[in-house]
Amino acid sequence: MQEFAGGAVYIYVDSTTMAEPTRRKSGLGPSIAPAEPKDLLPTRASLLSRLKNRADQTSWQEFFDTYWRLIYSVARKAGLSDADAQDILQETIISVAKHIEGFRYDPKVCSFKTWMLNLTRWRIASQLAKHRREASIRLPPRESQGETATVERVADPAGFDLTAVWDEEWEKNLFAAALERVKRQVHPEQLQIFDLHCVERWPVKKVMEVLGVSAMRVYLAKHRVGRLLKNEIKKLQRSSIC
Asked: Which fold has domain 2-18+26-165?
């Protein structure tokens, strides 16, 4: 819990779920995996308004559930450790709590997406600078063979395109949110067929053999789930604050 004047923001972090998920490459987006229904949903204007009440614990928990994976993943891709990424997450959420009152949504001036990116960027840059200061003050006389100093493992801010990584993770969150909506509309078997054939890129014959389904059912699942997914992504893009 982080207390502020006029209220408190409760941030719940389950450390058992903080490890960065394994990414499987495909042309459609992240692999299909179970997730909390409210996770990764684009922020609504109504939620941003409620966040200005620091005592509204429900809204702050909803906001945290929406953004923690995004912030954590970007910090990890910047070269930070799991512990450092968790610190970045906590500090960024607290920073939002401190500054949300002064945020005014105006895409022509600064979008919410850009505002969040800047808050996260400052925290990551600060953490990287801290590592470099510590390393310059106290470096071991010789690194153990096969090991590299932390200062060399972290990404160089000058050569790391944080904006590109943020955009990529933002789109993954959008995909995951759309997928959660689709899961409520189709039979689990159709979702499994879509995952194996379209995400995992299994050939139709292999899907037929493993699941014991006909080629027609594979094609139907591909068409129906794919169509629903595209529609949900469009809906989320229209309703989200970017």
From this structure: Rna Polymerase Sigma Factor; Chain: A (1.10.1740)
